[in-house]
Amino acid sequence: MQLTFLGATNTVTGSKFLLKLDNKTILIDCGLFQGLKELRLRNWVKFPIDPKTIDIVILTHAHIDHSGYLPVLMKNGFRGKVYCSHATRDLCAVLLPDSGFLQEEEAKNANKYGYSKHQPAIPLYTRADAERTLELFHPLEFRKKYKLDDEASVSLIPAGHILGATFVQIKNYNETLLFSGDLGRPNDIVMHPPSIMQEADYLVLESTYGNRLHAKVDPLIQLAEVITRTVERGGTIVIPAFAVGRAQHMLYLMYLLKKSNRIPSVPIYLDSPMAKDATDIFMKYSSQHRLDAELSKKVCEVATYINSKQESQLLDKEVFSKIIISASGMLEGGRVLHHIKTFASDERSTIVFTGYQAAGTRGADIIRGKRQLKVFGESIEVNAEVSVLSNMSAHADYEEILEWLSHFNHHPKKVFITHGEPEAALSLKEKIEERFHWTCVVPDYMYTETL
Ligand SMILES: [Zn+2]
């Protein structure tokens, strides 16, 4: 076997791992690079192997940094099958076309405001490309074994994190490879804990929080406080949230706060048609998370859903206090940018970040204290309060990762540490070496190893 790391090396985006078996070429995850420009440029370079030669793509989950490059692969000749869980397939049917739409909008805006070096700016892929990609999907059941070739099989095992997220376990001859995808948390209020795994000869492990622990604060208390003080000064709360996963999580928190009268009675808007679609899918798979069908329904009723662009823009003209949950989660695109353009400069308002902000994104810049933003080519001042909900992550922190690893019943031959900024990956490597004495590698971009 030969394993090549084509993404998520010393960064949290662009997950792509190429696995060559005797007779099959398999790509595990097919994510888009996001954040820093030098990373995003990699989305545009020629794929290192001919996409026609890839037989199967296996997705750990639907997040764009794990699935969003698929339409590019397809455009360049990939015609194989895409394996993933049923919920991941449904979520990709929402996320990928939206990603294509955002790329088209971005190119359109760049042409309109003239801020691209390319004349004319073209989208990486379109909504139509993304829709065609969906025809290649073949959803698999959890935990069942599916044949890849005569000697190899794959199983998808629930990983927590977000709806549909799985580990990818590949058995080839008598060796087992395990790809963690994104590892969920043991006590997530919405998702079930990640499955306990006991063996892997080779482990490809994420390290988003490899050097950090989540604060043990209750996000409900933090959220109640920040909403209350913002409303008291007449401001609006803008919550950038990933449409899939985080938006549903936020609705649940809002439901709990409203039910117990812990926040003032102000309107709550979910301004993301994609988050609405994702919420419907969330309800469809109610056995795969902690909220049953009845509770899911109540949670969904906590917000007013905004559909049209006009309705969305009207929100910015309303003078009363309100809560706007809108995508994208790292302020890289989507409707939330219009709200940020309106409310970031208002010192009465608050921007509440709820998830990991990758380096190079507007979200990461604001959290680091940057007070000047560029939105649609225009300079915006950030005068609003900036708040970060600290215990909301869908990723395990390093203690939670180590706890998950402690169930392995024998040493992996090697652990490849991926999906983390350099400090996080290195720090997790040291912790695993110290606690378990396992051999760990932090692979570089394009690093290949024969297993
Ligand atoms: Zn993810």
Would you give an account of this structure?
Strand 7 and strand 8 form a beta hairpin. The protein folds into two domains: 268 residues, 4-Layer Sandwich (Metallo-beta-lactamase, Chain A); 170 residues, Rossmann fold (3-Layer(aba) Sandwich). Helix 4 packs antiparallel against helix 5, helix 7 packs across helix 9 and helix 8 packs antiparallel against helix 9. Strands 6-5-4-3-2-1-22 form a seven-stranded mixed beta sheet. The mean pLDDT is 94. The protein has 14 helices and 22 strands. The N and C termini lie close together (5 Å). With 451 residues, the protein is of the alpha/beta class. Bound molecules: zinc ion (ZN). The site of zinc ion (ZN) has 4 residues, from loops. The site of zinc ion has 4 residues, from loops.
Sum up the structure in keywords:
451 residues, alpha/beta, Metallo-beta-lactamase, Chain A, Rossmann fold, 2 domains, 7-stranded mixed beta sheet, 14 helices, 31% helix, globular, binds zinc ion
Please provide a brief summary of the model:
This protein is an alpha/beta fold and 451 residues long. The chain is 31% helix and 20% strand. α4 runs antiparallel to α5, α7 (246-259) packs across α9 (293-300) and α8 packs antiparallel against α9 (293-300).
